[in-house]
Amino acid sequence: MHTLIRLTLFTLLALALTACRPTPTPTPSPVPPTATATPEPTATPVPPTATPEPVVMDLVDTLQARGNFSILLQIIQQTDLVEKLKSEGPFTLFAPDDAAFAALPEGTLASWQADPTGPLTDVLLYHLVAGQLSSADLAGAESLTTILGDPLPVSAQGEVLQVGNAQVVQPDVPATNGVIHQVDAVLLPPSLESGAP
């Protein structure tokens, strides 16, 4: 019986110790983090790095866009050849810039402009050839027949391309109805070469 009393006492003691022990504060169970919507990164459009193709216009509009052919454009209007140079073509135009016209002997351009249907038209038509001829095509030619009907001599020495009395300084300017080769002098048809004022 002693054993039973001892066991009972031991059990009561264990219960008393357990009851006297401070109650632990419950530890909050960890709350799983709430998922916040993270915006998806949006792809920022990257502009293309390639050089855009130049806008190709007809011969007249290309001359206007280049900015150094105001005298030639004035002559084209005076001779009523705007429509022809805007037509389907194709044409090859040897285009003297403003500096080339300024280099003419004094009074020459003014005398031509006095009669737009005479020498002025002849001079302009002498700068024009039917067909689209690149600088490579020109380098292989000795002579071209102009819209005026007169021959225009051509020569090439290395990189230097010469047409008549002028050097091609900017070749192969594209147009929708042909090609422009900028020249450094006004080309004179044979009929005007000796009689130019």
Describe the structure.
The protein has 197 residues and is an alpha+beta fold. The protein has a domain at 59-188: FAS1 domain, CATH 2.30.180. Helices cover 35% and strands 20% of the residues. It has 9 helices and 7 strands, in the order ααααβαααβαβββββα. The protein has helices at residues 2-20, 59-66, 70-78, 82-86, 98-102, 108-113, 119-126, 135-139, 190-193, and strands spanning 91-96, 128-130, 143-145, 151-157, 160-163, 166-175, 178-183. A 7-stranded mixed sheet has the order 2-1-7-6-5-4-3. A hairpin with a 2-residue loop joins strand 4 (151-157) and strand 5 (160-163). The longest helix is centred in the N-terminal third of the chain and has 19 residues, at 2-20. The chain is globular. The relative contact order is 0.15. The model has no long low-confidence stretch (mean pLDDT 81). Keywords: Signal. One of its GO terms (cellular component) is extracellular space. Residues 1-21 form the signal peptide. Residues 56-187 form the FAS1 domain. This is Fasciclin domain-containing protein.
Chain-wise SSE layout:
Layout: H1 2-20, H2 59-66, H3 70-78, H4 82-86, E1 91-96, H5 98-102, H6 108-113, H7 119-126, E2 128-130, H8 135-139, E3 143-145, E4 151-157, E5 160-163, E6 166-175, E7 178-183, H9 190-193
Parallel strand pairs: 1-7
Antiparallel strand pairs: 1-2, 3-4, 4-5, 5-6, 6-7
Keywords: Signal
Biased composition (Pro residues): 23-33
GO cellular component, one term: extracellular space
Q: Characterize the biggest β-sheet.
A: 7 strands, mixed
Give the overall pLDDT as a whole number.
81
| CATH homology-level superfamily of the domain at 59-188 | FAS1 domain
Low-confidence stretches: none
What share of residues are in beta strands?
15-25%
The strand line-up of the biggest sheet is 2-1-7-6-5-4-3
Task: Please bin the fraction of helical residues.
Answer: 25-40%
Secondary-structure class: alpha+beta
Number of strands: 7
